[in-house]
Amino acid sequence: MIEPTRIIAIRHGETTWNVDTRIQGQLNIPLNDTGRRQAERMALALRNNPITAIYASDLARACETAQYLGSALGVAVTREEGLRERGFGEFEGKTYAEIETLLPEQALRWRKRDPEFAPPGGESLLTLRGRVVAAAERLAARHPGELIALVGHGGVMDVLYRAATRLDIQAPRTWTLGNAAINRLLWTPEGFTLVGWADTQHLDDEALDDSRLTSAYAGNAVNTQ
Fold this sequence. Notes:
With 225 residues, the protein is of the alpha/beta class. It has helices at 16-19, 33-46, 60-73, 96-102, 104-111, 125-141, 154-165, 201-204, 210-217; strands at residues 5-11, 51-56, 77-79, 147-152, 182-188, 191-199.
């Protein structure tokens, strides 16, 4: 019998492009001030969890978010390309409205969640799912009986939620993918199981004031490279 691996899955903190509804894809967009604040609060909320390993997408916004957690726990962050956001090709850098206006036929296939549709130069949902599930299973298999953190993107969180709930890739999304939300899963060789989703209490808790955040991170430089 293999003990299950407990997983905390976290989407990166907010970026300016999130606010602008601009597609980031695999471009390296940093956190904004709100995103850094969210990452601080997430790390403070998880600082007493026995996390033994932290894996993060190698894109800047996810790495920066993960580094806050790593600093709070004293655990190194390992970069993992398999946790990258979906490659959106020609969509990257454009807002949702611009895509609708400039590429209406492609936008329609995107909205309908056509599993085989890939923006020119990008990935299909099928490719994204295969990549993310394979990476998450490989990483979880390294840590039976342990608690690990996976830090990624909205598309990554969506794939993990569907894998854990056995939802079809084309099913309409009815769950949130909040920035810096805490999501919990279990993994065994039989697959993923959902434990808890979209915990954002740490982002709303006024008790996490400036003085506590400052003291928690004093002397812990965050590497955002």
